[in-house]
Amino acid sequence: MPPLINPITLFFASIFTSNILLTNFLGMCSFISISKDWKSSFGLGMAVTVVLTITAAVSWLVLRFVLVPFGMEYLSFIIFIIVIAAVVQILEMVIDRASPALYLSLGIFLPLITVNCAILGAILFMQIRSYNFIQAITFGAGSGLGWWLAIMLLAAIRERTEKNPVPAGLKGPGITMITIGFMAMAFIGFSGMIAVQ
Amino acid sequence: MSKTMAILKDNLWTNNPIFIQILGICSTLAVTNNLRNTAIMTLGVALTTAFSSLTLSAMKDLIPRKVRMIIQVLVISFYVIIIDILLRAYLPEVSKQLGPYVGLIITNCIIMGRAEAFAQASKPLLSWWDGLTSGLGYMAVLMGIAVVRELLGFGTLFGIKIMPEAFVPWTIMIMAPSAFFLVAMVMWWAKSMQAGRKPEAKPATPGQQATAAAAPTTTAKA
Predict the structure, then answer these.
(1) Tens digit of each residue's pLDDT (9 = 90 or more) over B43-73
(2) DSSP B67
(3) Which B-chain residues 98-157 have CB contacts (< 8 A) with chain A?
(4) A64: which DSSP letter?
């Protein structure tokens, strides 16, 4: 991997050309179950973006200053999971204190996020591609926004197609998968613009 | 004996993790354009599910309910790290190709789903069997998808050329959208088959009841 990618390029690349959901299939479980409802999708997408940005920064620091100096890279999976769980927990408490209104709209999604594959996936990508600190933050924020964009688009599409006549066997998740497939095809159209993988 | 068979059938077909519960698609779909990688990944998922169910079921009385989730995740990570180290030692090339996806087995929703829905309330050996068969049900579907994707996308199976020289590879099969379409096809086929057989209603097994009750919550959690 070329270590020096312009952070701005990286930011847009992680939203559009290598969208974490549509090209890497990460975070599918909650994506399919939550996208029935537009409002919840917005909340969950925002929560993913916030958590992903913060955890990317924190895990980069942990990786650089704790895991590598002590030669504990083999423990990285466990450490990253603990970092994610801790960040989610702290964020939940902070939001609860600072803004009860925000807590009502975001708070219920926070526990779901600990086991969202997109978060751990982005952090592992960050580790494997050895991003620097700025790149890690922009990559985290971009991936989160990309996830938010994808779930919002899908929720909007599902709202429109809900009443459409679909073969019985395809109802629900089946037709949703096909919709996601078309979205992924549309996003491939972006891939000529920026070449970062 | 009948109970183990019931669990096997339940996990492979009636309650298959992919086309009925829609769990755990995240981590593995990305590698389904290569049959060998899919086989190794899904095997990893199956083994992790089996052994984490076994462990969690064996120590279920020792875990306080409040910290249950984090303990489950830690046990799962433990097994995934073992698999990662084994892969790095014996199959370094595959390990490099799989990249971050091996680590992502941790967040595979099936594993936690089984731990919550089955291992929580069952004996260790039965939980092990349940985890293993869930993993096999998962494996069967993804291997099927991988066969189609590799055959049409590269003209090969396990890297061996199958299609004639004149065959033009379907580039779309290598890329992400085809995986979504193929999963939808499998769901369609399986649901139509099951709907056709509905009339012969049988008494539900405890495993079925447990998963049926827990399925909505686990899906939401994941």
Answers:
(1) 999 999 999 999 999 988 888 877 787 888 8
(2) G
(3) 99-100, 103-104, 106-109, 112
(4) I
